[in-house]
Amino acid sequence: MSRNVDLLIIGAGPAGMSAAVTARRHGLDVLVVDEQPAPGGQIWRNVETMAATARGRLLGAAYAEGAGAVTRFRASGAAYEPGTQVWQVEPGPRAYMTRQGATSLVEARCLLLATGAQERPVPFEGWTLPGVLTVGAAQILLKSSGQIPDVPVWIAGNGPLPLLYATQLLKVGGRIAGFLDTTPPDRRRAASRMFPGAVLGAPGDIAKGLVWMATLRRAGVKIVRGVTDIEAIGGQAIERIRYRIASGDDVTVPAQTLLVHEGIVPTIHPTLALGCAHRWDAAQICFAPQLDEWGETSQQDIFVAGDGAGIGGATAAGLRGEIVAIRIAARLGRLSEGQAAASARPARGKLRRALISRPFLDALCGPRHAVLVPNDRTLACRCEEVTVSEIRAQVAYGRPGPNQVKAFTRAGMGPCQGRQCAYTVASILAEAEGRAVPDLGLYRARPPFKPLTIGELAALDETSEAA
Amino acid sequence: MFRKLPDSTMKAVTLSIDGVRVECAQGETVAAVLLRQQECWARLSTVSQAPRAPYCMMGVCFDCLAIVDGVASVQTCLTAVRDGMIIERQRGRPEAA
Question: N or C: which end of chain A has fewer CB within 10 A?
Fold first, then answer.
């Protein structure tokens, strides 16, 4: 059955929830769909249940803030459908989705993609072995399932999340075998020049990072700086890791769990499928949809807010959601252009402040070269098991882009549809061909975005509820 | 590989993984339960039949795919546990299961 709404919001994280609250305040008919069983997005996973508990309080103030946001969202009057898989979006705008085995079409006057970010893929030899997970995955397990690694864990990577998770893990009684900091020395130097500005502009953010570092040191966690290459070794699961230290020497240690993280990148699968224009963000080394000052994409009536618009964090995401919703209210005749501009002004001011520490974080937290172009033996594509050298060998057949390589090697054709290998394949080709990633682009995204049974597809009834 | 913190609630839901009864808590995902098992893998890869376990826990890696109540290639990190649920590890290509 097809349904009609004023505003369809995909994603119930900070941006989606805040947009829903604002749009409801202007009387719009709002439907919010989300993959997860509860609202909050990745940052506020399970916050309704967790926030009030002793363990929830250990997760910190930024997590606790989510409880208020979720309460306001629940009270907003927006229709909310958790556990929904959206498997196609089209100009119109319209979206196809499946929930509890039932398939439906939603036609919206405006569509907001608040689909957030994913962790940047971190390919290295052995990254597919059971026992290797992302730091984000481990944090989700802590928030939503109250579980932690049952042996001392190795954490490798850079950026705020590994530090935050490490401190949370220590507080709940977990143990850390070692913290391998992969921040390259040149990034550390570049970021140090921006440090005074970041301290003055966003002292709270910087203080948090320093407190996390101090917590690790106080707990006696082994911290190794300047780690470059990492390899996970094992048969049916990880048994050892090997890493290269600043002196150039390799160190091999036993390991049963390795958590990795090299920053996050916007979720652009839906905007790629829609044919929206994208821009290359050189500071964050990723693509993001091209947006106007109100968050509208190159496709009319289709908007993006939150980290999907460029990484800015939860506070910025909520503010961007509010700004987009004001624009949509004006588009649908609830506000004049002048009223919309005036009503967005406070949020724009707060957004600028929320993004003050971003240049410092972007300078410090970018991926090192081996994350983008790993060694030849590494699986670039986890799903179809295609190695870096197999991708590179394609360059002998002309100057292929990612879509030709996909056809020839199957890289990007597995169930993840390139979510884990698109940047790697583009970076390998760019380097081998002497081109730039933004010139090569990424794989085309095609429906269905998510596994869908023939039965679910056959059950789709596109007749309108009004008919 | 993972363990529940001692104060976590448990034993509200019972499901089966490859025929073995497993107790777990309301509100958690099948992938989280898999990661607490001795054998934490969810599927064998389609090319080399290598074991794969939940990796991203947020729906973007697809290594947690398993057969849930007879439906193959279900993302178990997005699937909440339900009493009586039958989970089978997915061996290679779904049709070979």
Answer: C
Q: pLDDT tens for residues A72-83?
A: 999 999 999 999
Partner-chain contact A453 B71, CB within 8 Å? yes
Domain ranges of chain B: 13-96
Which ipTM did the prediction report? Answer: 0.95
CATH number attached to the domain at A373-440: 1.10.10.1100
> Residue A44: which residues within 8 A CB-CB, separation 6 or more?
A13, A14, A63, A65, A66, A67, A69, A70, A314
Q: What's the rounded Cα separation, in Å, for the pair A163 and A145?
A: 20
- Residue A113 φ then ψ, to 5°: -90, 110
Max CA distance (Å), chain A:
72
What is the identity of the amino acid at B97?
A
What is the DSSP-derived secondary structure letter of residue A395? Answer: G
Please identify every stretch of chain A with a pLDDT value under 50, giving residue numbers as ranges: 467
Structure tokens at A56: 């929830």
Distance from CA of B47 to the nearest CA of A (A): 6
Second CATH level (architecture) for the domain A2-118+265-359: 3-Layer(bba) Sandwich (3.50)
> Which residues between 178 and 217 in chain A have a beta carbon less than 8 angstroms from any beta carbon of chain B?
none
Identify the residue whose tokens are 């049916």: A236
Stretch 223-282 of chain A: residues touching chain B, C-beta under 8 Å: 236-237, 256-257
Domain B13-96 in CATH 2.60.40.1220? The answer is no
pLDDT at A465: 56
Task: Report percent pLDDT > 90 for chain A.
Answer: 84
Exposure string (b/e) for A19-35, b if CB count within 10 Å is 16 or more?
A: bbbbbbbbebbbbbbbb
pLDDT digits (tens, 9 = 90+) for A294-342: 999 999 999 999 999 999 999 999 999 999 999 999 999 999 999 999 9
Instruction: Kindly provide the residue ranges of all beta strands, DSSP E only, lying in B7-91, ordered along the sequence.
Output: 13-17, 20-24, 43-44, 51-52, 65-68, 71-75, 86-88, 90-91
